[in-house]
Amino acid sequence: MRKFKMAVCQMLVTEDKEENLAKAEKMIREAKSQGAHIAVLPEIFNCPYSRKAMVQAAETYPGETTNRLSSLAKELSMYIVGGSIAEKSHDKIYNTSFIFGPLGELLGSHRKMHLFDIDIKGKITFKESDVFEAGEKVTVVDTEFCKIGVAICFDVRFPELMRIMALKGAEVIIIPAAFNTTTGPAHWHDTIKIRAVDNQVYCIGASPARNLQSNYHAYGFSTIIDPFGKVIAATKEEETIIYGEIDLDYLEKVREELPLLKNRRKDLYTLTEL
Ligand SMILES: NC(=O)CC(=O)C(=O)O
């Protein structure tokens, strides 16, 4: 199929894990009823984005959250990009996205590679590395439609990673994320857009809705951008689902008419994955 429908569930994440899981399920069911083939959840969707909550909610794989996503993907016969959760593995915790196919099978998982350690004076200080270990591999999964790259939030700021995914054949790049009210207005829209334009991919940013009851105020503004940089779906802060059609023939046309990937000067520079 050269066209398919993507749904981004911008869900309001609360302190209640069960409520979050039930909400994610409800939104995915709604996305399916609207004809979506792929549903995407935001970064850290089963608990608040705080050190204490993430440590408490951490689960091994397979575990409660991933079992529920897998069963739902199978029941609805759809793809689910499971935002991310705190994944416990041996004595470490990772910020991990689990991606399920329509048989409920695990297609891949991405552990956030770049941890969000920032200190913008008077605005926001956050040190993800207090909780998480960094992942070490680039994630591109095969689907019946195309290859899809998955990276998490701060990862999107590293253009080399996005380019490597495109070079590995990704035509869609999905970014479960939780930008905030300082960096979001400054960088979110432009960053997602330029990753789409540079790599001539559909780029999807999936944020939680903004929850003013929580300590971390997610930016929201989930969006789907096409390979020419056009916003095909977008929202603001509130809880909602946005939908967009992914058209792989259009992507091919953009790549033919404006041949960026083909015209790289590989004789002069290279990008290696260590
Ligand atoms: N939360 C993140 O990982 C990244 C973010 O908010 C930003 O890059 O800004």
TrEMBL record:
SUPFAM superfamilies: Carbon-nitrogen hydrolase. GO terms for molecular function: omega-amidase activity. Keywords: Hydrolase. One of its GO terms (biological process) is glutamine metabolic process. The keyword DNA damage does not apply. InterPro entries: C-N_Hydrolase, C-N_Hydrolase_sf, Nit1/2_C-N_Hydrolase. Pfam families: CN_hydrolase. It comes from the Bacteria. This is Amidohydrolase.
